[in-house]
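Final report, results section. Input specification for complex C-07:
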Amino acid sequence: MRFRTTLSVSVAAASALALLTGCGAADMTKQASPFANAGGARSMTLSVQSWVGAQSNVAVAKYLLEHKMGYRVDTVQVDEIPAWDALSQGRVDALLEDWSHPDQEKRYVHDKKTVSYAGGLGVTGHIGWFVPTYFAKQHPDITNWKNLNKYASQFRTAESGGKGQIMDGSPAYVTHDKALVKNLKLNYQVVFAGSEAAQITQIKQFAKEKKPFLTYWYTPQWLFKKVPMTEVKLPPYKEGCDTDAAKITCAYPKTPLRKFLNADFARSGGKGAAFLKKFQWTTEDQNEVSLMIAEQKLSPEEAAKKWVDAHPDQWKRWLP
Amino acid sequence: MTLTVPTRKPPTSAEGSDAPVFAVDGLWKVFGPKPGRVPADPALAALSPAELRAETGCTAAVRDVSFEVRKGEVFVVMGLSGSGKSTLVRCLTRLIEPTAGTIAIDGEDVRAMDRGRLRELRRHRAAMVFQHFGLLPHRTVLDNVAYGLEIQGMGRAERREKAAEVVAKVGLAGMEKRRPGQLSGGQRQRVGLARALAVDPEVLLFDEPFSALDPLIRRDMQDEVARLHSEEGRTMVFITHDLTEALKLGDRIALMRDGRVVQLGTPEEIVNSPADDYVREFVRDVPREQVVTCRTAMRPASLEEAGSGPAVRPEAPVAEAIEAVARAGEPARVMDHGTCMGVVDSDALLNVVAGTGTAAPAEREAEPTLVSAAPRPKAV
Amino acid sequence: MATITAPAARRALPGLLKSRPAAKLLTLAVAAVILVPLLDSRWGSGHWPHALTVSLTGPLGDASDWVMNNRDSHPLFLYFFGHISNAVVLCVRGVYLALLAMGWVGVTALGALVAWRVAGVRLAAGTAVAFLACGALGMWLPTMQTLALMVAAVLASVAVGVLLGLAAGLSDRLDRALRPVLDTMQVLPAFAYLLPVVLVFGIGVPAAVLATVVYAAPPMARLTALGLRGADPEVLEAVRSLGATPRQRLLTARIPLARKELLLGLNQTIMMALSMAVIASVIGAGGLGDRVYQALASVDVGAALAAGIPIVLLAIVLDRVTGAAGRAADNTGESRRTVWLLALAGTAVAAVAARLLGRAEWPAGATLNIAEPVNHAVNWMTAHLYSGVPVIGGTADWAAHFTTWMLDPLRDGLRALPWWSVLLIVAALAWLIGTWRTALTATLAMAAIGVLGVWDSSLDTLSQVLAAVAVTLVLGIATGIAAARSDRVDRMLRPVLDVFQTMPQFVYLIPVVALFGVGRAPAVVAAVVYALPAVVRITAQGLRQVDPAALESARSLGATGRQQLWQVQLPLARRSLLLAVNQGVVLVLAVVIIGGLVGAGALGYDVAFGLAQGDLATGLVAGAAIVCLGLMLDRVTQPTGRAKKGA
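Structure output:
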């Protein structure tokens, strides 16, 4: 009899759920964020990636959409690959800086057609290995990967043990460093900082003491303005040399960064979608905003406002 | 401690003691694995508790108990802890399911009742008062008292009105809005009593209701129960481990030990003619002059004795006669409606007080209903 | 009589105690002597043998692909998960719109009025101040988003928890089945819950809410069951004796009698939901957690703090208000309903008035920028403490020493142990402290880690946990003793502990990196900081609860303060100390995992990697290994008979 009570309660709960949601099919890939459109205004959700460059894109886009076009914009921090998924589901409407994910592109853009390409960002990205310029000046031959082993002892830290340390960043980033270290027979240990924040903090600490360090890094990046770094040349990139990730022995390619929109949003997103498609700027522009955010500690909104006030010609072209 | 025995109504033979409220026969409650085999097998049934446990892993809390509770009487079940008395009272309304035997209420077989009928029994015919009160801490006094009525499905206004009456009856008027946590122990038990009374049951079952209270309050509550009984004449089954309480309240007492009823009789019988050494040890310190009546202590009067001397009632305790005899310096006459039934002299009274030889009782007010299983009282 | 038998019993007891652990160890030793040569000859004695691992990469990858491809077409998703997801979105949105409609005035008024009714004037004022502070920090909207998410998650957690609790409270069989599951779920790091939910629901609010529900429902279920089972049996018997039906018994007696436990359950559920709401920002929860997460990406401790403070304030307010509701369970008057209606009316009036005055949204100018000064302070700290401090060395040097002298030897030592000896140690520890059942669970959990093929990274994580627990216990028990012995210290510590316990773990990851560099050391430090409050609290509480009579008799014999501590208080508080160890281990594990975000590597990094790269195979395997590790650590430190979680 006790069991009957429990049962009736759970049946009641289940039917309440059914009533609440309405019967029939519910496609959760077509559900927007619950916070969207809350203000009554036209609204959209932009995905932000964890690095500051991506924050700058979104900050400026958001500022313009809100102040010049009357939108209400929500931002959600999502890493790139999950962002693709979220984009496909319509949880977010746009991904403004994609560093090339062929698998995702194939699945969502070509197969499912739930995501559509929205033009280039105008910025070209490049990943590489960097040492601080003050160190490269003392030891010019470091810029060739073949000499890395010679300096391994100088890059040693507590974490890397007996080997030199090459510091990697966020797990979200594209990296082949472990394979590279192995395949190029380098006496180095890859240490994952775990997040860009941690990596930047560590780089700045090293720089403050003028210590040598070797790090995975990428351009465009505002940190170069604060800590000048010089790239270590890896064996040159050739088309297709990175297809087998385990056997890689070449450098990272130069990647034109691209924008992607949710397919439905791209079709029926009106002026907001049109604006995002036209949004395009340069590495310098992005770094300008990034520096304001990361170094001067302006809020993204303030930084965006400063940039927008200073470059009216630039953004007027983006307005539909 | 002195006993103030309330003037006890003589067990009501007029209202038909032939129709018992509860009739219990051969009742068993065995805890443990496969309990049914113990009452069924005479060899097992005869074992002592320790042997039974060793042999079967079972404990017999109630063993082969039979008794009848007559309408209007206070039936006390007394025994030390572990004697099975609390289990017994729970078996009456099947709060604990008996293992074997029969229970009848007003002739209806309790063990054969289905769920609904049993609920009916608990709702309307027998209500229980518990040792630790069993009140709902989140409800007010009034709502606690009305709880039984609420369970029955009575409307809010009606049950509250009824509950308020009962609350007043047990002397808690003005405390209706309090919660159990704000009451003293005695007050809480009054709430428990009121809750049981509110459903107007045929029988009230008390499970050691006052043993958690301190002595003074306990006496108050005993008086309260005695008062209620004399006012309403409701049948009561009263469980206690306190002999004084049993003697004070009980019309008849069943004395339990190790699950068996070792003696069943009026307080006077138990004190005066203990069935065995256990009972005798038990009643040793009872102030006998407070329990034994003059009717029991008297001897036939000689002619001259019947003519003079102070008079006492036959149901008066011996203590009363002692006072009279001491004052007058001569034997006291036991007078019933103007006729002299006998006399009590100082020798007889001393015998009562000392507990030495009792003169063969001249007359018994009722033959004790002796349980077949219980050992017969030995002649002393 | 007692005086005669007591000495004999006392003499017999140590002998018994001594022999039982000895017997257990002996049994294990015998088993080891037989098994080890076998295992050794077959699979060798180094790391976990490859032959005994099962690679799940393929199947998990396939599963994740299948989900991705079928999420918008398969009936399971359309008719089941879809509706759940939909209901969550609707619910969160409903609450969010309601909060927005009330405006900041309405929300603040409502919060204060509820707090006033439940807990009195002081808490009402505190609540109002807390809400205003959220606004003043410029966090009004994120706060409302987090609140909306919390309301939905807490409602669902309570519903699920109460249902499970009812089941476990009413049926012995279900109780036996559910209890170990619920116990275990409560010791698992929140991070481990994220991936499976993301796999099904994708990034976003529904996944965040559901992960929160999975995390926050167990305490509700446990306490509901506890309350139902703990009801005074005589009251229940009395109710039965009055002829109540089972339904009447449940509704009028059992549930009201369990009210205290239910409210405590609500309290714990809210606290856990709040901490999860922050961690769930990793999977798109939005709100305050997202602000913290975003601020961290730009190494902006100040901004992270600005978003962290509202979380702490919310946590403290919710904790105190629900706690007060639990304590006040008994004294409620007749006029309750009218007062509640008045409170609601007051809220409505305030909200409408604010609306009419055009002040529904938080005034833009009225925000306080705390980010800058905080960042200044942090910069100063890192600039002056990082290294080169005379004599004691800088924090970076400490971190390096700690890594080289403590973490490395520990990790390498663990890895150098033959795999079967690790299992043996685990079994021995768990058996000594618990029963053969706990030993078996712990050993199987550890073996499962090996089978999953993450033996090495798990030992890495384990070494960090062990180091952090050691530091935590030394600091925590010392501080706890100080707090127990001096009321002043206790009073000073209380608010600090409150703040540290409710501050989202994310917030202190970055200053820790700034001070200790990237690597395992900062993860250990963050873990110590996070676990310390609970350990301090449990220790202090345990010491304070030591029977005053025992202390008094010790004093009367002329024991010094030190003697009292060592000979009376600490031995008598043994249970609390064991509980402190257990809690310390559980909390440390939770942060060491998150430490993957600051270079601690190992399992935490794998989970983060799985989330970031959508590589569910890596992430899920690491998540499962974390679950096993948590299970193992809990069982190895679990004193028999578990006490409630959270001090």
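The longest strand of chain B covers residues 59-69. Chain B has 18 helices and 13 strands. This concludes the modelling results for the funded period.
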